């Protein structure tokens, strides 16, 4: 059963599904699902977007031919009740469809917005861990700081790097790449 809310049909008494996402308005918000729970994020700010675009460029330049780098709103659809839109993702080229990534990416990156910090550190991190995404990075644009997590042998995330400012992260997964948080902000880092 659904309930009407303006022009959007909302799930009532059942988990949200990817079919419900298609009914969401194109209003600048990001709509995602984690185990049937709808997550709505407002449009990101300048520092957030600067980091996303610059990180995309750094990853794209280092990306081997068998992988691809994409950004939100490109979706990772793990099931009918889970669809995530990492700010940046890396996957195997062969795994992508034209519309989405139906399997776990090799890397998911979330850049904090004031409204997303708790969700990115808790709900999304847990969802990516359940999906067995090998590498998960979070970036705080205010510091700036990058924290990189990787799955261990028990399929639990552990911190492999925490760098801020002009410190260097020499990532090995999903491919070798050098990340400096200040560089991702450009002139906004000063």
Automatic annotation (TrEMBL):
Domain Putative restriction endonuclease: 19-176
Listed transmembrane segments: none
InterPro entries reported in the protein's UniProt record: Nuclease_put_TT1808, Restrct_endonuc-II-like, Uma2
Signal peptide: none
One Pfam family, short name: Uma2
Domain of life, source organism: Bacteria
PANTHER family: SLL1072 PROTEIN, SLR1083 PROTEIN
Name of this chain's protein: Putative restriction endonuclease domain-containing protein
Organism: Actinophytocola xinjiangensis
